[in-house]
Amino acid sequence: MKAVYIEAHGGPEVLTYGDLPEPHLLPHHVKVRVRASALNRLDTYVRAGQRGQRRPLPPPHILGGDSAGDVVEVGDGVVGLAEGDRVVINPRQSCGQCVLCLAGDDDLCSHTTFMGSNLPGSYAEYVVVPAANAHPIAGNVTYESAAAAPTTFLPSWNILVRKAQLKPWETALVLSASAGVGTAAIQVASNVVGARVIATTSTTEKAEMARNLGAGEVINYNEEDVTERVKELTGGRGVDVVLDHVGAEFFDRAFNSMAPGGRYGICGVTAGFRAELNLGALFTRQQQVFGVFMGSKEDMRQIVEMLNRGVIQPTVDRIFPLSEAAQAHTVMEDRGFFGKLVLQP
Ligand SMILES: [Zn+2]
User: Fold this and answer.
1) Could you report the per-residue pLDDT of 30-45, keeping only the tens digit for each?
2) Mean pLDDT of 334-339
3) What is the CA(103)–ligand 1 centre distance, in A?
4) What is the predicted pLDDT for the residue at 270?
5) Are residue 128 and residue 263 in the same domain, yes or no?
C-alpha cells in the first residue's frame, strides 16, 4: 500500500511517500481503507524526533493519528461494525483491562498507545484499529471533516464539557482560535453548551473566522491587552472557564482573566512548558487549574453524536494528496492556516 513514513528524524524532507506492506487484521479489530488523515502538531514532533518522540529508525515508521475511512474487513469478535461502514478513528488506544479502563476513565490508562507515535499511523491507504476506536459517521459527514475531529475535539470536550462543566450562562475564554483545538473549542462552548465565547487570535482575518465559528467576541492579542479586554467584556468579573492549548506564553494573561471560581484547563504547551502560578490568587479566588490529555472513549462517542447531528463541524483549511505530506508539514510549521490540514490517500 502507499504510505508516508520516516526512516530518520528531520525536516519535512524526511517524509517518504512509498510502498509498505498492508497491516494484518486482528481479532476485535477492523481494517479501514483510509480516505482522509488530518495533521496534528504531534506529527511534526514525531517527524523531528522532538518532545519525547525520538524513536529507533529504521524500520520505517508511518506518521499520522486522526483519520476516517471505510471498513473493509472485520475481525473475529467484532460487534456493531460491518464491511462498508464509514468510520472516524480515535487514534488513542487504551488497554481495556486496567482498573481505570474498567471504571470508564480510559483517558487515564497508563498502557495507552497513540497512532503515529508509538503505533503505525494513518498516513497510509490502510490501518487496522480496535473496533472500539472506530465510530460510524453519518452520510452527510465528509471523511475530511470527520478526520479533523478527534485530536481537536477530544481535549476541548474533556475540558469544557466533562471537567469544567461549562454552563450556558457562563463565559469561556478560548486561546488561539485559529489552531485546530481553538476552532473545536469555540464550537463546543458555543454550539454544544450554548455559552458565551471570547476568543483570542493574531489577525483581523482570523478574528472574522473565529466569529463565524461562534465566538461572540475576539481579542487580537497583538493589539490589545487580553486581561484588560476580558475585564471590559465581562463587566469586571472575568471568565468562568479558560481553555488553554498553547501554554506558557499566554498563561499569566489568561489566568488573570478568570473570575472567582474559574476553571483553567490546559491541553497543550506548543508555546512553552513552564509558567508561574500565583497560589495566593488561586486559593483566595477559589480557582482550579487542571490538565487533560485527549479524552475518554465516552467523550469520543458523544463528540461523534454531535458531529453526526451537525451540531459541530470540524474546520478544514486545506486538503493535500497523501504524496504531498511534506508540503502539508511545511504549511503547518509556517502557521499560515485556520483549522485542520488534511491528507487524502
Ligand atoms: Zn487501561
Assistant:
1) 999 999 999 999 999 9
2) 82
3) 9
4) 85
5) no
**Number of domains making up the chain:** 2
Q: How far apart are the first and last CA of the chain?
A: 10
The whole-number pLDDT of residue 271 equals 85
pLDDT of 87 over the 80 cut: yes
Q: Which residue has the cell 454550539?
A: 191
DSSP-derived letter for residue 190 is I
Taking the centre of ligand 1 as the mean of its atom positions, its distance from the CA of residue 29, in whole angstroms, is: 17
Average per-residue pLDDT in the chain?
A: 96
pLDDT tens, residue by residue, 275-304: 999 999 999 999 999 999 999 999 999 999
Helix axes 150-157, 180-187, angle to 10 degrees: 50
Do both 225 and 336 map to the same domain?
A: no
Residue 296 lies in a domain: no
CA angle, 63 as apex, 162 and 301 as ends, to 5°? Answer: 25
CA of 212 to the centre of ligand 1 (A): 39
Domain interval for residue 48: 2-149+314-344
296 Cα–ligand 1 center, Å: 11
204-207's contacts with Cβ under 8 Å and 24+ in sequence apart are: 206/177, 206/178, 206/338, 207/177
Paired sense of beta strands 29-38 and 67-74, if any = antiparallel
73 in any annotated domain:
yes
User: What is the Å distance from ligand 1's center to 323 Cα?
Assistant: 35
Asked whether residue 138 falls in the same domain as residue 102, the answer is yes
Both 104 and 167 in a single domain? no
